[in-house]
Amino acid sequence: MLVRLLYASHAAKETPAGSITAIMQQSHSNNPRQGITGVLCHSERLYLQVIEGGRDQVNALYAKILRDPRHTDAILLHYEEICERRYSGWTMGQVNLNKLNPGTLLRYSALPEFNPHALSGKSSLALIDELMAAASVLGRA
């Protein structure tokens, strides 16, 4: 059974420089073996990530993320069983949200500031889908 999980978290204050690079390298190394696909959206202080795959694999990865000291205040925004993957082309795509157009964000948010803790899961997924359509996602594998 395939599932899609979306969560948001804050970057820990002690997060070293280069953490995004390390997260992406780990994802590209580990995710293919686990059948995990998805997209990581990030700014200097926030993460928004969608992961897809088998229920056991996605749940295990999310449990690992919850224990990861680079994340704080993780919140589950959306979890669903799916018939097909939406992000099958990415072992883990990447979006730098510091480059997000405020007009794009205003379609899904009350304010032009990225705050995934204030967005619904459906709005967050729609934002990620728009970023994919606009070719803002890097790291197709």
UniProtKB/TrEMBL annotation:
GO terms assigned for molecular function: blue light photoreceptor activity; FAD binding
One protein family per Pfam: BLUF
Cross-referenced SUPFAM superfamilies: Acylphosphatase/BLUF domain-like
BLUF domain sequence ranges: 2-93
InterPro entries: Acylphosphatase-like_dom_sf, BLUF_domain
Protein name: Blue light-and temperature-regulated antirepressor YcgF
Annotated organism of origin: Duganella phyllosphaerae
Gene (UniProt): ycgF_1
